[in-house]
Design goal:
Layout: H1 8-21, E1 36-39, H2 76-81, H3 83-89, E2 93-96, E3 100-102, E4 123-129, H4 141-152, E5 156-161, E6 165-168, E7 177-179, E8 182-185, H5 207-212, E9 218-220, H6 226-241, E10 246-249, H7 257-270, E11 274-277, H8 289-299, E12 302-303, H9 306-318, H10 323-335, E13 343-345, H11 354-357, H12 361-373, E14 377-381, H13 412-426, H14 429-432, E15 434-440, E16 444-451, E17 454-461, E18 467-469, E19 473-474, E20 479-481, E21 494-496, E22 504-505, E23 509-511, E24 515-521, E25 529-534, E26 537-538, E27 543-549, E28 557-560, E29 563-570, E30 574-578, E31 585-592, E32 602-606, E33 611-619, E34 629-634, E35 654-657, E36 660-668, E37 672-680, E38 686-688, E39 694-697, E40 704-709
Helix pairs in contact: 6-7, 9-10, 9-12, 12-13
Length: 712
């Protein structure tokens, strides 16, 4: 990534000239072309034995690697030393375990064995690096070296960030957290309200419990406390200063949903980044599924695609019908505004590895090919390319986190990933294109990805017999197409016989048993085509990245609606522009090239101002029945611009103390806003509270709180 040069106006001018005229690495705000590789740092590679048993947390390392809940020696230096292996695999981004300083205490497991936070999810100091991953003084040296090496290899760095909690509230350090070595507070002596003091979650479908109760005895941070809010945002900015390109946010379902809007806005306002989070749900029938896609559409934070993950594991692991995949793809395309930003995966550190579910390497290859060619950003769990697995106890946690033991660059999975990663970068149909099912039965799935004249057609047959494919149509132009994978997964060639439109017939052919074939075409020339904008919402003055093709090498113009934006950098496939000073609301962003050709538009929300957390409470709200909810609406885009629908208004609000309702939101700093509360009944009927609009001046910084009575 390019960095601004020091040295005043001359350096600033030189920087602007270089970014306008020279090619540059893709910015993180457009992550759709990337292939992510998830690494459990402790279980990848031991690059330095000096940090295996550091003095402040000694006794937590097991050199025999038989205690599955101890440190085994993997570290940041180890990842750095395997950078060429990752680059060859086609990895363009690594997602590493939370690197922050973690719990130092030894918590026995009940049989006298020590347990350790080798996974990184018990942070004690979010502004220092864990000594087992770096060095005994918790400095940033090893982290900086890793980021530098990754960027030199064209690989972005994502850190796992866990702002929901600190350490266990009932053991070890009792939730204590530090700001670069200085104690801030702890759970047992919490006079400043840094934590929520509720029990463990018991009802995982209750909106209040999942956000404000405790997750597995981990001290639950109160993000709307001004100290905690500032601490978490400054910690994220510190990692941005050290070169990270993105954040995977742990347990977004269990964080304060409304606060996260301000967190994302803080990150995007500060520097170029991509954000996605973990919202576990088994399917699109999950009781909180609607809440999840409303959150993803509004917050600026994408999410791991758990419904599609479940379908992938069912279809390729348990041999259900291919229609399961199509059903999820179709449903999520309707619900998620930015479904191409969803992060897709086969398995991860919280579930059994795919080979524990199904030992067939053929099925693993098919699942990999699917996520690498479908919409969304594919994420591969470390070792998948080496068929890494340990089936002890069924293969669940912690046995799904074995030590990486092989680095063979000739496995079929390694080669497959590398080839399809290249295709993702070179053919915009995969990162930006539409999805269309072209042919399907229980074992065969043929789907097409299309971005204007760029087309990728994929055929997967998981059946034990060859399939006779007739009546297949495609957007591929007339011609003969070789299998892009050159027969790696037994793919065949096809012949498109006639036509110039989007339904050109393919000559009948036999798709071999247990095969995957990929055919593709790219166009040259054409008008500017926009496929991505990131972030998807921001206030005037924030830089956004526009991705696509045919922008040309000579700078043109970018418009938000009818207003021309300042262009910060320009290339044929990527533009960086600054959000202009326009009224808050929804806009279409377009690109006009130097030949005056205008692109398609892409949706963008202009915020009123930088966001800060504000908690609204309304007392004695309108009587409600089961299925009725209170919502908030008001005068700015952040309040829904007086809309009264479930998806546009703020809510549903929470009522742990009925008839009082509250909700945490993110509001424009320093602005005067007007608002009211509404009841949306189970049947969709809307009831407004009476009286004049409520008014409130949002604080310029920190956090805010509003308490009013329902007006009858």
């Amino acid at each position: 990534m390019l960095r601004r040069l020091p040295g005043g106006k001359a350096a600033a001018f030189l920087y602007a000239l270089v970014t306008l005229l020279a090619p540059f690495a893709a910015r993180a705000a457009d992550f759709k072309r990337e292939v992510v590789y998830q690494i459990i740092t402790d279980r990848f590679f031991d690059g330095s034995t000096a940090n295996n048993n550091p003095p402040q947390s000694s006794g937590l390392y097991d050199s025999t690697k038989t205690n599955w809940r101890a440190y085994w020696g993997g570290d940041l230096a180890g990842i750095q030393q395997k950078m060429s292996y990752l680059s060859g695999l086609g990895v363009t981004a690594i997602w590493i375990s939370p690197p922050v300083d973690n719990l130092n205490a030894n918590i026995p497991d009940g049989q006298g064995n020590p347990t350790a936070s080798y996974h990184g999810y018990q942070g004690r100091d979010f502004k220092r690096i864990e000594e087992h991953f770096g060095n005994s003084t918790n400095t940033w040296t090893d982290f900086d070296n890793l980021v530098t090496a990754a960027h030199q290899n064209g690989i972005k760095v994502i850190i796992d960030f866990a702002p929901n909690h600190t350490t266990q509230d009932n053991a070890g350090e009792f939730g204590a957290f530090y700001d670069n070595g200085t104690l801030v507070g702890n759970y047992t002596n919490d006079t400043n309200g840094y934590f929520h003091h509720n029990g463990n979650i018991s009802n995982w479908d209750d909106r209040y419990q999942v956000q404000y109760y405790t997750l597995f005895d981990l001290s639950d941070l109160n993000q709307t406390n001004s100290t905690v809010d500032a601490y978490l945002k400054s910690a994220a900015q510190l990692f941005q200063d050290h070169g990270v390109d993105g954040f995977r946010i742990d347990a977004i379902k269990h964080l304060d949903w409304g606060w996260q809007y301000s967190f994302a806005n803080s990150v995007y306002t500060y520097k170029d980044s991509f954000l996605f989070g973990e919202w576990y749900q088994a399917s699109t029938a999950d009781p909180l599924y609607h809440d999840s896609y409303k959150y993803a559409n509004k917050s600026g934070i994408s999410m791991l695609d758990f419904p599609l993950n479940a379908a992938v594991r069912n279809v390729f692991g348990s041999n259900t019908n291919m229609s399961d995949l199509e059903g999820v793809i179709t449903q999520e395309a309707t619900d998620f505004t930015w479904d191409e930003d969803l992060v897709t995966f086969i398995d991860n550190h919280d579930m059994t590895r795919f080979p524990s579910l199904n030992a067939s390497q053929t099925r693993l290859h098919q699942a990999l090919a699917f996520i690498l060619t479908e919409r969304g950003i594919p994420c591969i769990y470390y070792g998948t390319e080496q068929y890494l697995v340990n089936n002890t106890g069924g293969g669940g946690d912690p046995y799904n986190r074995p030590m990486m033991s092989s680095w063979n660059t000739n496995t079929t999975a390694y080669t497959l990933t590398s080839r399809l990663s290249t295709l993702r970068r070179n053919n915009t149909a995969i990162p930006y294109g539409s999805h269309q099912q072209r042919w399907i039965n229980s074992d065969v799935y043929i789907y097409e990805r299309k971005f204007y004249g760029n087309v990728v057609l994929v055929a997967i047959n998981k059946g034990a017999a060859a399939a006779n494919i007739t009546g297949l149509n495609t957007s591929l132009p007339v011609g003969t197409y070789n299998d892009y994978l050159t027969g790696l997964l037994s793919g065949v060639n096809i012949n498109v016989t006639s036509g110039t439109g989007g339904n050109n017939p393919v000559a009948a052919f036999s798709l071999p048993a247990n095969s995957v074939a990929v055919w593709q075409a790219t166009e040259t020339g054409g008008f500017p085509q926009v496929g991505s904008v990131g972030p998807t919402s921001a206030q005037p003055g924030v830089r956004v990245t526009i991705g696509g093709k045919n922008f040309g090498t000579t700078q043109g113009t970018v418009k938000f609606g009818t207003t021309t934006a300042t262009v910060n950098s320009w290339s044929a496939t990527q533009i960086v522009a600054t959000v202009p000073s326009v009224a808050n609301g929804s806009y279409q962003v377009t690109v006009t090239n130097s030949a005056s050709q205008v692109s398609n538009g892409i949706q963008f929300t202009v915020l009123t101002a930088k966001l800060i957390p504000v908690t609204f409470t309304v007392f004695n709200a309108s009587p409600t029945q089961v299925g009725d909810y209170i919502f908030l609406t008001g005068s700015t885009v952040e309040l829904g611009n007086w809309t009264t629908t479930w998806d546009a208004a703020i809510g549903p609000m929470l009522t742990p103390n009925y008839p009082n309702w509250f909700i945490s939101t993110s509001m424009p700093a320093g602005q005067n806003i007007q608002f009211k509360f509404i009841k949306i009944a189970a049947n969709g009927a809307v009831t407004w509270e009476a009286g004049a609009n409520h008014t409130y001046t949002v604080p310029a910084s920190g956090t805010g709180f509003v308490n009013v009575n329902w007006q009858y």
